[in-house]
Write a structure and sequence with these properties.
By secondary structure, the chain is α/β, with parallel strands linked by helices. It has 2 domains: 116 residues, D-Maltodextrin-Binding Protein, domain 2 (3-Layer(aba) Sandwich), CATH 3.40.190.10; 93 residues, Periplasmic binding protein-like II (D-Maltodextrin-Binding Protein, domain 2), CATH 3.40.190. It is built from 6 helices and 10 strands, in the order αβαββββαββαβαββα. The strands form 2 sheets. It has a 5-stranded mixed sheet, sandwiched between helices. Helix 2 crosses helix 6. Keywords: DNA-binding, Transcription, Transcription regulation. This is LysR substrate-binding domain-containing protein.
């Protein structure tokens, strides 16, 4: 798998070189598995060409743990789980509150917030491929039962169907407003760190600009 990932990465880099040589413009591909930059996605996209018009920005969704970084689908990636430090560098650019997702007709939908201890008594829907939540969020003796998915759309569909709840980052609330699904804050859960990550040996020249802008946006609320 590592050889295949390396081959894809080299092919993507070759495509970038051809594009830059023919257009005279650099290109930055930012990958993500879901939620992108949450509420800051559109402001990021609009501010980028004003500040760095010579660098074309592309957002690329790839349903993998590294948001396409390991597969060569992007130059840097937005991740909400720390990547392997042996392969990647990363910088925390902001924090997002955790939310509980539930069906719109769930009794909890009438609440203003939810506690972790409440969730321990429910069935928790876990995205094993790219999700940020595992049962490790709870003490061993009070962990919830689990069901599993491997994609954000499947996760949302299962939540909307009822019978289980999910725990996710604020970015999901902002990017996936779905009929049949409501979100309530988890008032006693630690926030999720949002990171930008890139390969140790291949930092994109514009990565520092992305870190600068996204840190600014998350810092502004």
């Amino acid at each position: 798998m590592r050889v295949l990932a390396r081959a894809r990465r080299l092919l993507a880099e070759a495509d970038d070189l051809v594009a830059e040589a023919t257009s005279g413009h650099a290109r930055l591909r930012i990958g993500y598995a879901w939620s992108a930059m949450g509420q800051h996605t559109v402001p990021f996209q609009r501010l980028w060409p004003r500040r760095w018009p010579h660098v074309e920005l592309r957002l690329v969704r790839t349903n993998t743990a590294t948001g396409g970084l390991a597969e060569g689908a992007c130059d840097i990636a937005v991740v909400r789980v720390a990547p392997d430090p042996r392969r990647f560098d990363s910088v925390v650019v902001g924090l997002e509150r955790r939310y509980c997702a539930m069906a719109a007709d769930d009794p909890w939908a009438r609440r203003r917030s939810v506690r972790l201890a409440d969730v321990a008594g429910r069935t928790l829907l876990v995205d094993r491929r790219t999700g940020t939540t595992t049962v490790d969020l709870w003490p061993p003796e009070t962990r919830p039962a689990t069901r599993h998915t491997a994609d954000i759309d499947d996760w949302l569909a299962a939540v909307a169907a009822g019978g289980c709840v999910g725990v996710t980052a604020r970015g999901t609330v902002d990017q996936y407003r779905r009929p049949g699904v409501v979100y309530r804050p988890l008032r006693d859960a630690a926030p999720i760190a949002v990171r930008l990550a890139w390969w140790h040996d291949d930092p994109h020249p514009a990565a520092r600009h992305a870190v600068e802008l996204l840190t600014e946006l998350y810092g502004g609320g």
